[in-house]
Design a protein that fits this description.
The chain is of the alpha/beta class. 34% of the residues lie in helices and 15% in strands. The chain is built from twelve helices and ten strands. Strands 7-6-5-4-3-2-1-8-9-10 form a ten-stranded mixed β-sheet. Strand 2, helix 3 and strand 3 form a beta-alpha-beta unit. Helix 7 packs parallel to helix 8. The longest helix is centred in the first third of the chain and has 18 residues. The radius of gyration is 20 Å and the shape is globular.
Length: 341
């Protein structure tokens, strides 16, 4: 049975002030939201019921803010252990010790995602001074505990040239999984987005590094769906190998196999699309939300202005969140897609 992914923000509390963080961009850092334990129990039960109906298994990506900063984090971990639900954490390095990592593993944490947004100087400017070194220092703690270490790189014009050298760093530090995702802009900061040419250049450099390190033990997760276009143009992906039907085989998970739950219970089709709220996990049935009319608009693929004309529609669709931030319309062309259609 396959997993269904829930990204669950249990708190907004965080001891970084990242320049690309949507929480701080909204100005909400003066009044952190965090979910009460009784509401966490409701969410867990709602996720379990969803998966019974969908014939899937629940997998939770727990984040924030920094989830470990929630005062009842370990209570939640115990609840998940009792329920037999595996989880991954997406957080900061600052509260990780050898003992904390051992406890996380004992409660069922399979993966911990850290962030590196460039080399030392660039990363520390984007996040906070010293956090680059602190991130590298905790990798051995997680690995010793048996938790997979993932590193995520958020791409913008501020740091895209540093990606090749950063890949050297993550391999040297024996990171288990490496991926990058794009900064999601607003109408006011479009200039932080790479041009299609800059982004394609970066992917070429990354691909060369991935080939160089293919036997290193680090898995390179091709998270960005523009990798499908990249491989297609290199002759490494053939859409004709798939049946000529209407089935969506890959591409953006929004409306497909993913939901986001915020610390007040609000459910979003995609956390990075600011107006994608579809309901609330404390009052609504998650399965009804996922199969309902509010979610349907994220599955009307013929509305995608550029992608609907492309032979890769069922496999790519770029990033609707980046398109929504850049153009104010999730159906608009992905601003980093270099393909002419």
């Amino acid at each position: 049975m396959e997993y269904f992914a829930f990204q669950w923000h249990i708190t907004e509390a965080c001891d970084q002030r990242c320049k690309h963080c949507y929480i701080y961009a909204l100005g909400s850092h003066a009044k952190f939201k965090e979910m009460a334990v009784e509401d966490m129990i409701t969410v867990i039960e709602n996720c379990q019921e969803f998966c019974r109906k969908a014939q899937r298994l629940p997998y939770l990506y727990i984040t924030g803010g920094d989830p470990i900063m929630h005062p009842q984090f370990w209570t939640l971990a115990k609840l998940l252990k009792i329920a037999g639900i595996p989880f991954a954490l997406m957080g900061n390095p600052f509260h990780l010790t050898e003992e904390v990592c051992r406890r996380l593993a004992a409660y069922g944490c399979r993966k911990y995602q850290l962030s590196l947004d460039g080399l030392r100087e660039t990363h520390d400017k984007i996040r906070r001074p010293g956090s680059y070194d602190e991130t590298l220092e905790v990798i051995p703690y997680l690995k010793k505990a048996g938790i997979d270490v993932a590193v995520m790189f958020t791409v913008s014009r501020l740091n895209y040239k540093e990606l090749p050298e950063l890949i050297d760093v993550v391999v040297e530090n024996k990171v288990d999984i490496f991926a990058f995702a794009r900064y999601c802009p607003s109408a006011e900061d479009k200039e932080t987005c790479c041009s299609p040419e800059e982004y394609h250049w970066m992917m070429e450099q990354a691909w060369a590094k991935f080939e160089q390190y293919k036997d290193s033990g680090t898995t390179f997760n091709l998270k960005d769906h523009l990798w499908t276009l990249f491989k297609y143009e290199k002759g490494l992906f053939d859409p004709k190998a798939y049946p000529d039907d209407e089935y969506v085989y890959d591409g953006c998970n929004c409306g497909n196999c993913h939901l986001t739950i915020l610390s007040d219970g609000d459910v979003y089709a995609c956390r990075r699309i600011v107006d994608s709220k579809v309901g609330n996990a404390l009052t609504d049935d998650l399965y009804d939300l996922f199969t309902g009319q509010e979610m349907d608009k994220y599955r009307v693929y013929e509305k995608f202005e550029k992608c609907s004309k492309c032979e890769l529609l069922r496999f790519c669709r770029g990033c609707p969140a980046v398109a929504a931030g850049y153009h104010g319309n999730m159906y608009a062309p992905d601003p980093q897609c270099w393909k002419e259609v």
